[in-house]
Amino acid sequence: MDQGSNVTIAANTFSRDGYTFTGWNTQADGTGTAYAAGETISLSEDTTLYAQWAEIVDWNGSEVGKTATNLDINYQSDVTLSLPAAGYQKEVDVVFAIDCSSVLENNAADMANALYQMAQELLEKEHILLNIGVVGYGHNADVLAELQPVNAENADDFLAALTVAFENSLTDDSQIDHDGGSNVQVGIRVAKNLFG
Predict the structure, then answer these.
(1) Which helix (H) or strand (E) holds 113?
(2) pLDDT interval class at 86 (50, 70, 90)
(3) What pTM does this model have?
């Protein structure tokens, strides 16, 4: 072609798995001049155009709905986010496995307060229905609190009951055997069973 000839950019006939074609560019890395298919340009020298690709994003499987248009030649896209409705609630189950060793013996109230503070942080999150269970373990394990809803209205009662359960786990009448050391695996196994 003669210098200064007008050329129409061809449509893309290539495909790339997991990517969408976004246009053409004079540099392979996209830092040159961008052109769209069907665009007419005036050439002053031999020019190579490189196909430009954008990874296809899978928006499925998310709590937040998202839609996006393909990238344009300026690498821009229109994105729409659909946030959960005001009444949306996500249920979260948390089970704590507590070593009922001598550490708990001297710190039952402090341990209960630490768990309470963690629960309070979760309760401050919007749209969360919180369920908490607690397992104590030594040589064997026992459920100290069944998995149950904990909220702003009953959190103080939960703390009081948990403190009593910690103190009871240290008595000779406890189901938790403190002889022979701690068995973390049995504690985790009993905790997993609380999830159902």
Answers:
(1) helix 102-123
(2) low
(3) 0.53
Instruction: For residue 42, give the nearest of 100, 3, 97 by alpha carbon.
Output: 3
Helix orientation angle between 155-169 and 102-123, rounded to the nearest 10 degrees: 160
Backbone angles phi, psi at 136, to 5 degrees: -105, 145
User: Cα–Cα distance between 45 and 156 in angstroms, integer?
Assistant: 78
CA distances to 26, 28, 162 from 33, rounded to whole Å, are: 5, 10, 66
- Residue 195 CA to residue 176 CA, distance in Å, equals 20
Pure H helices in the chain? 102-123, 155-169, 184-194
Residue type, 131: N
First to last CA, the chain: 74
Whether pLDDT at 61 is above 50 = no
Question: How many residues in the chain?
Answer: 196
Q: Give me the numbers of helices (H) and strands (E) for the chain, helices first please.
A: 3, 10
